[in-house]
Amino acid sequence: MTAKLLAAWVALLAFGLLAFGEAPVLPQGIIPVPDEPPIIVSVKTNKATYAPGDLLRLTFTLNHDAYVYLYNLTADGKVKLLVPNRFLQDPLFSAGTHTLPTEGWVLRVTAPEGIEYLQLVASAAPLSFYEAKAFEADAFLVYTNPAAFASQITALLPRTWGTAWTSYRVHRPQASLSVATSPSGAGVWVGGSYVGTSPLSTSVAPGRIQIRVEKDGYETKSVDLVVGDGEEVSLVVSLSPARPVWPPISPPAWTVDVELPAVGFGLAVGLTSRSISTDLWLGGVGFGMSVQLAPPLPDLTEPGPGGWFAGGPEVEGYIAGWLPLGRGGLIVLVGVSLQEMAWVPPWSPSGALTPLVDIEPETRTDVRLTGGAGIGVEGSGWKLYLLWHSRRGPTLGVVFTS
Predict the structure, then answer these.
(1) Whole-model pTM over 0.85
(2) Which tens digits make up the pLDDT trace of 272-290?
(3) What domains are there in the chain, each with its CATH number?
């Protein structure tokens, strides 16, 4: 099913309503809504148009508890079952308003552009048109014949059921921009990004944009434009010769003697945590950053429990202080660490077909306060310390001072 064919269906639907007043011809794979359904259903997406890469969210309402089945009619003539899926295998929802996706997964819209359809079927009893074990191999199920899929579900529906469907557009807004300069050969920046030398043509996102043109020996010029989706804009910029630059007049020199604190450079390693940190010391105060490698993710080829796991290294920024005590000293450290966490489902992913509406793990960033304290010794031009850190455990460090 191509995007052009879907667009033709929409046009035919509108024409039939205006000219004949008859019921619309539904796209292949859409189950008609009963005249008086026992279960009343409504469904809507959070936007009417999505660019490829946008996250899709939808809201649906039920007037009775029901088993919910949500599927997507794609532009290439397939059906992708979005609910249930590997992350949401129990599709029973209570009466009321609900939002999809639930925690642990997202729906991301991908190319190609065109009109896409979503249908939600609510049934008083579960429909046995698939096996839940299939989710171990694929995050979602794919059916290649929309009409056969709709007939299969219709044949299984009990007396108490209802359905609703909606559509949305996949489209990436863009405009065409051509820039010429007099003289030519000037560097062109659009929105702060270099795009080439004039004359040139490029695509830009609609909205307000700033164009900057620079060439040696000429004054820099900036132009602000507002462009619309699908608009073609041609811009010609005339550059003026640069004014002569006179050397600045130097003010009288004043000498001020300032005693600067001793400057030092520190390095520390976690004895058990696979961490390394560097810091800059000004007198008795240090400013630094630490990186701690994330533990390996669980083996996704074997069954196992799911949950939140570290998806990247833990990065910490901190401030340290040194309190001298004779030839020794105390060191105290406080900071903040950031780490990306990833949701891992309780079964292994596999190489499923790339969907138009894809399902991918959810991520989040954990922010934690950190701290540490320890003791050390110092000599001429160096300090050596051992501290216990709330995230890095036992940590050994050295500071070299000038």
Answers:
(1) no
(2) 888 999 999 988 899 999 9
(3) 3-170 (2.60.40.1930), 175-238 (2.60.40.1120), 263-401 (2.40.160)
